[in-house]
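Example record used in the benchmark description.
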Amino acid sequence: MPCTPSLLRLHPSRLLSLLAAFALSIGLLSPSPAAHAAPEPAPALPSAAGASATLEGTLEVRIEDYPDLTHKTRHYLLTPAGERRELRYRGEPPGHLVSGAKVRARGRLADNLLALDDDNSLTQVSAAPSYSVGVQNTLVLLVNFSDNTSQPYTVSGAQTLMSTIDAFMRENSSERATVSSAVRGWYTLPLSSATCDIPNIKTHARTAATAAGVDLSAYTRFVYVFPRISACTWAGLAIVGGSPTDTWINGAFDQKTVAHELGHNLGLGHAHSLHCDQSPIGTTCSGYEYGDIEDTMGNSRGHFSAFGKERLGWLNGTDVPPITTVEASGSYVLEPFSTTGAGGAKALKVLRGIDPATGDPTYYYLEYRQPQGFDSFLAGVGNLTTGVTLRSASLSRGAFQLDMTPRSNTTAAAYDLMDGALAVGSRFTDSDAGVTIAVTWADASGAGVDVTFGKDSTCKRAAPAVLLSGPTQAVAAGTALSYTVAVSNNDSAACTSTSFSLARAVPTGWSGTLAANSLVLAPGSAASTTLTVASPTSASAGTYNVSATATHGASTSLSGSASSTYTVEAGSSSTELSATLTTDKSSYTLGDTVVSTAAVSAGGSPVAGASVSFTLTKADGKTMTQSVTTGSDGRAIHKYKLKRNDPAGSYQMASVATSSGKSLSNSASFTASR
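Model output (structure tokens):
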């Protein structure tokens, strides 16, 4: 059966480290100076001796974000009597609850910790109000400690960063939310950096600001920024939802971290990804907490997803761009996601089903991202700006970015998602939901999507989709490179599995070996194999095309192909042409003879018969040209006797050596005096 988020395994440590490395490599995540420490341990569960209790009050949700892409979510119940009780769940805390919700909790109480009896022991009495629209009056307090008075940021630099955050929120919300910020400090707190004393950092920072004349009542968002201290192992900690809110930044005061933590303040959780074995919602799947590589609430610095924006009231509401809820088969158009737009849909929303565990509806959200605005960093990242991104989302579990070509890159899940969009000409079928989604066209103005409901009993064959991905850096001639050939079966769900034969094309004289010559795929599924390409050691510097083709086993007229490139770095070929130009002296007296020598070689051996064109430019700008052929020693010699009436000054000698259709230019200069 297809995977649902309820089956996910979160936080495999190896993948998290690879996600972090990937994010740093393409600039999706700013490196944090904080150590890669594990989350602080949660308090132990109370023993069965704790008193049975049912408490009511207001929920406070905190998320601690760690530099190694792990996290800790903590829930606290604030009672009307002013008591503060941490809630301990048997599994993960529910992701849809935010600060300000009125809740009732049942469990065993000991030492200010209420261990819930089971997953149904917490009931939301009333939902929290939303504060995500309008002016977000934000006060940034720069603070340090009695034993660490360093000031790693300037006030002006911090204000510039907050201006960027304001621009980010304005663009994301279509001007529905703005950040009006003030930066104050530095304030040295009467605290040691040896302990992570969050409550007192807040208390003393506010006291210092008040003493300096700051009116705290003018603000609803408070950000406490301090130099990196090892006592706090997280990079950022934020209150999720509600108003007023607090955020603590531990030495990671950058756009990615601040926008992420303020996203929590507005009420957003993390943006996940789903990785399956055979199809986007295959039989064996793993989910990753920060896995979304487009969304700032995941492992990125781009726009919040359509699901997140809808929760915040930034899409599909009054005076904001619409989301089209698709309820009938038809053709639909998506506007580019990050632009202001012309009134068209920023996302499509297709019902996937009802989550059996929570009763919440689960939807597919479709977006068409373009490298514009705060999504500009996506330029050239796989097919993310040439296809349509799909996410599966529900209120209780959040949003999961889906990979339309699973396991096309097995290095790391984040790399695998780089070609995870649904490409033009490809289709995705969820047979359980009875829906097929196909991308029909895409350009700078938008993308076309066909949605078909119902289980068609007729088999409709279609050309497969092929993606070819591999290294982009230049390599030495003779190097063997591995490319991934990913093939998707676009047949309708009523068809049987099909074998697709594979072929490759490489430049003449090169080797290209497919690990598998065919792939057997069920409709809607995808698989991949490896193509190993090696250039000859004599290959000249340059960029060459390699390609792969998949042909349908039921009809050879149905095929798909894709291409990539192989770049040979300069100077690495065993027969790479090289040339030099020298003069026998650097200065002459009029009447002397200037001897210029061009030496032409390939792979270290002299090239005989190469044509060398010499051009002499005199001090007065007049030129003369002569062609000479290299001898067996690869040398071409040009001689010019300076005349007594030639001008004194600087002379330029240029040469163009040509052999086997390739040319190299060189130059040398000298002076002539009377």
